[in-house]
Sequence to fold (267 residues):
Amino acid sequence: MDRYARDVLAKQERQRPSPAVVDAEAGLVVEDRDSGFCGAVVGLEAGAVVLEDRHLARRVFRLRPGAFLLDGQPVTLRRPATPAGLPSLTASGSRAVEPSRARVARTSRIWVEGLHDAALVERVWGDDLRVEGVVVEPLSGVDDLPAAVSAFDPGPGRRLGVLVDHLVAGSKEERIARSVEGPHVLVTGHPYIDIWQAVRPSVIGIAKWPVVPKGQPWKEGVCAALGVAEPAVLWRNILSRVTSYRGLETPLIGAVERLIDHVTAPD
Fold:
């Protein structure tokens, strides 16, 4: 062995130790290194953790290596193998309920304007609706809504909630909505021309939804502006990118939450 082969006075490069890996247990207080947000772990989502600060504000952060500080030291949070006391959250942000026997569907219903609306509501609120026994049914527009509501015959224990596109002041949709509302019928909606527009543009990698000239079908106009041949192709892309309520605009989230509360409230 050559004792002099290595220069003992040479400056040695010290390797930075890897951040410690810590289970994201309920109540663990950490700080997000990028934003400085400090809070306790109150929930888990797919690949993310929910933190709540001392003002009860909640934010969701991705579980990235070394993304958090614990007692001033960088750590990597991971999902516990058995997260005792830590609720998992559904795509709507509600606390997930352990699987149990399927609940018999309520006689109350939520109606939406079309198949795309129904698919998006199922994507985000499906778990919640199954727990509550609420069925979502698509309509083919709102022009015949008064006749449909009359045939449904809403009443105590048989409530009806209706989600309407482009529900803005002075519109045809608003006039129809007001004509059917009552103690057992609630109509809510969003201001967007189509349910597609209620998805945040960043979800599909664009800065904003294209402006479509009046008189041109909106979906076809959007497809043309984005270089997509068929609306069905673009819709599949949009729906696949929505993984939780965070991918939706606030007016749609509030409208659906109000409908769920309405049809599940005790009479």
The helical segments are 115-132, 145-152, 172-180, 218-226, 231-241, 250-264. The two ends are 89 Å apart (CA to CA). Residues 115-132 form the longest helix (18 residues). Residues 8-13 have pLDDT under 50 and may be disordered.
